UniProtKB/TrEMBL annotation, chains A, B:
Residues 39-293 form the Aminoacyl-transfer RNA synthetases class-II family profile domain. Keywords: Aminoacyl-tRNA synthetase, ATP-binding, Cytoplasm, Ligase, Nucleotide-binding, Protein biosynthesis. Consists of three domains: the N-terminal catalytic domain, the anticodon-binding domain and the C-terminal extension. Belongs to the class-II aminoacyl-tRNA synthetase family. ProS type 3 subfamily. Its EC number is 6.1.1.15. This is Proline--tRNA ligase. Homodimer. The keyword ATP-binding applies. PANTHER family: BIFUNCTIONAL GLUTAMATE_PROLINE--TRNA LIGASE (PTHR43382:SF2), PROLYL-TRNA SYNTHETASE (PTHR43382). It comes from the Bacteria. InterPro entries: aa-tRNA-synt_IIb, aa-tRNA-synth_II, aa-tRNA-synth_II/BPL/LPL, Anticodon-bd, Anticodon-bd_dom_sf, Pro-tRNA-ligase_IIa_arc-type, Pro-tRNA_ligase_II_C, Pro-tRNA_synth_II.
Length: 490, 490
């Protein structure tokens, strides 16, 4: 329990919290369930945003911005949507404070809104209200828009990054002339998410569809990517919804097709959020702190000089300067930590905590020998390597680390994904060796709900391209044609 | 009045609104005073964000994120701050809606917050509450943090981009060990803003200080950059505040200095917002539409093919493909508009409206002659140029346009900045030839207020490095040592 972080094995949940705080990622705000994303945490989020934003643009999307506030009446327009979101939202009722004459600041009752405003929990309603003005003809379609924004859902139990009252996200909202095109968009964005989460974050995911119970409120079909955390709990890392014509009907959005006939528009929406930070942490990190994939690390390499005399430091500095230029030319970021207020050992621990993928330690003997000591954060191994060709070696090592942490997570998931055929075995594993449990289910919402009530496990998804096989539901014994993926989840 | 835009001379205010709507920059939302920033408008804002963000990082700042909601009590802690911001804010009082049983969605009175939350109008209070936990010693200073966020101020009269209930902005919040350092930061960020607004937006600004009346609520000193719009009204384009120890005292933020003594921390804050979009539009645009500076134009060059037969189009396409590669290598964006649903004349008008700096028209005769027609948006001039070396010519032209629109705006400002020595002349000019009026003022808030009440002109700023000269206040005739800059303002 050095660094003020409890061991994962002792208390995983506490370990996560400790790590988020100690690695300067985030902290709780004085407002219930809200968080402050600290500069170091935010710099990781910025890298995630930049990569995703480029992927969205490469697939033809543009960003736009819609209002924070949504008139209350908008929520009633799509029946299932209101049930899903009205329960947990922040309501603005007044627009002024005043001094009560005794020095207290109070709400001014003369400034009560005629219609209350809801702080957006998601923006389908206000966006489809807007699209009505943008869409007349098939020539106006498709609309491929994304928004980076904050949203608010009044959660009762909150955890940093995983479930906060306010969180940051992106929400894509597209409009199409046909169901086929909308479904293709839904699937394309699921692929974009899977690509990002696997190849940038190094987090393997299962692509699948949600059951009716777990669908987004207002969607005909919800696609998702599901990841497995180190404690065997699943985490939904992103969702992409085929909304059919539900919102177009609710907001009366029609277009005239090529034959001049009026039709309702087809819709999708898709989003990922700061929750991904939680997935990142709980996939790779260890008791020594964060482990970051090189592609998302704000600092990819740190160089720590080991010296007694200033002239030694100056020699090292000159060398690192040259190396830095070489690395930067390769697009690799390096920090030279020459603070004289901290000892090398302290710095080593700090950069381990912060998840810096590669650490260079370099002293006078190294300078004489033409070597440096390289330490990998992922494997916690060290090697002494020659300075010649170091930049190229580092470039290759960073790629290796990116691959290695993904592979490690993939192995973990393979070890913790088990086919289960009886309900007893199912319950036993959930307690003794939690992970993805692949099991037969009779396809009814009732059975799904009973399993959830009895075990806290939910159907995470019906994997895409699922193998079809005969079987019996683990709970009811009724016939089933495919296995689905169960787990307890964040 | 083609394109549905009224002439500037006829009605400047209506022209601005028409242009914002017709050029697809923004529109009003169904929520009072809120706006929807459309994809084209947002893509300009994104370019502004990217340039500013780089400047902030180059001066050592990091981004972070603080909560949208601020407990009501926080506002009472800094006395002048509450007066400035409590009057016009959105208040969250409840956290749940419910169905009243008759199909209506109503606010659930059982879900009333104990303490109301304010949607941030600015974040000094919540950030200084947070800094208390971050700062113990001089070693923790300076803190150089910026936030990109949405804020809400309940404005009674709103205009797209210029004054909206919700707007997007960045707010820098820094903490320092000494007053000198904080003042240096305040001044540095003013310089960063001036650099950005002049060299990226092409909008000349006057750097100055606000009078006590116009200061930010809670600041000891407010620095600003003021621009002059085409209708002779001023627009405050950015502010940088020296907050002294006001917020540190209000939130009890102390640090132990090198001698181990506890002192209150010194603060600055600084911000620019989507209001800059208004300044951009009202500095350069004309009756034909937007005029964008090349550095911020989402599309810098558009190529429109003029052809009758498909094979002609294919020849042109091949040529433009090669040109595009050359331009992209220079970091210049080009769009090839080969839509066959619109005629060239329609496209020309559309790209004029959207402010694309350079337009290439190219037909079969051009292909035979090895030429293209180049049209500049800023001067609305055309020239026929040879294809050889075109990429380099375009690069140079874009730089010329960037310089030219700035110079034009600078000339306009020079023509509309007048030294005035009598109150009659002052009032006459405000009505007949509005602009910056440089006049003597006796230095009292009362005189400033009376001038404002009688003429609607305010003191925009006391220019930095102002010339000291003897004079008499235009209103009271009392002695004055320097002229200040008056104008009616947005």
């Amino acid at each position: 329990m050095s660094k003020g972080i409890i061991s994962k094995d002792e208390d995983y949940s506490q370990w996560f919290n400790d790590l988020v705080i100690k690695a300067d990622l985030a902290e709780y705000a004085p407002v219930r369930g809200c968080m402050i994303i600290k500069p170091y945490g935010y710099s990781i989020w910025e890298k995630m945003q930049a990569a995703l934003d480029k992927m969205f643009k490469d697939t033809g999307h543009s960003n736009a911005y819609f209002p924070l506030f949504i008139p209350k009446s908008f929520f009633s327009k799509e029946a299932s949507h209101v049930d899903g979101f009205a329960k947990e939202c922040a309501v603005v009722t007044h627009y002024r404070l005043k001094n009560d004459g005794e020095g207290n600041i109070i709400v001014d009752e003369d400034a009560k809104l005629e219609e209350e405003l809801i702080v957006r929990p998601t923006s389908e309603t206000i966006i489809w209200h807007t699209y009505k003005g943008w869409i007349q003809s098939y020539r106006d379609l498709p609309i491929l828009v994304n928004q980076w924004a904050n949203v608010v859902r009044w959660e009762m139990r909150t955890r940093l990054f995983l479930r906060t009252t306010e969180f940051l996200w992106q929400e894509g909202h597209t409009a199409h002339a046909t169901a086929e095109e909308a479904i293709a968009e839904t699937e394309q964005m699921l692929d974009v998410y899977a690509d990002f989460v696997e190849n940038w974050m190094g987090v393997p995911v299962v692509k699948g569809r949600k059951t009716a119970n777990e669908r987004f409120a207002g969607a005909l079909d919800t696609y998702c990517i599901e990841a497995l955390m180190q404690d065997g709990k699943a985490l939904q890392a992103g969702t992409s919804h085929f909304l059919g014509q539900n919102f177009a009907k609710a907001f009366d959005v029609k277009f005239s097709n090529k034959e001049g006939k009026l039709e309702h528009v087809w819709a999708t929406s898709w989003g990922v959020s700061t929750r991904l930070m939680g997935a990142l942490i709980m996939t790779h990190s260890d008791d020594a702190g964060l482990v970051l994939p090189p592609k998302l690390a704000p600092i990819q390499v740190v160089a720590v000089p080991i010296y007694k005399h200033d002239e030694e430091l100056e020699n090292i500095r000159t060398y690192i300067k040259g190396l830095s230029a070489e690395l930067r030319a390769k697009g690799i970021s390096i920090k030279f930590d020459d603070r004289d207020t901290q000892r090398p050992g302290f710095k080593f621990a700090e950069y381990e905590l912060k998840g810096v993928p590669l650490r260079i330690a370099i002293g006078s003997r190294d300078m004489q020998n033409g070597t440096v000591e390289l330490a990998r954060r992922d494997t916690r191994t060290k090697e002494t390597v020659i300075q010649e060709g170091l930049a190229a070696h580092i470039e290759q090592l960073l790629e290796e680390i990116q691959t290695n942490i993904y592979q490690k997570a993939l192995n973990f998931r393979a070890e913790n994904t088990v086919e289960v055929d009886t309900y007893d075995e199912f319950k036993r594993l959930l307690d003794e060796k939690p992970g993805f449990l692949s099991a037969h289910w009779d396809g009814t919402p009732e059975t799904e709900q009973r399993i959830k009530d009895e075990t806290k496990a939910t159907i995470r998804c019906i994997p895409l391209n699922n193998k079809q096989e005969e079987g019996k539901c683990i709970l009811t014994g009724k016939p089933s044609t495919q296995r689905v993926l169960f787990a307890r989840a964040y």
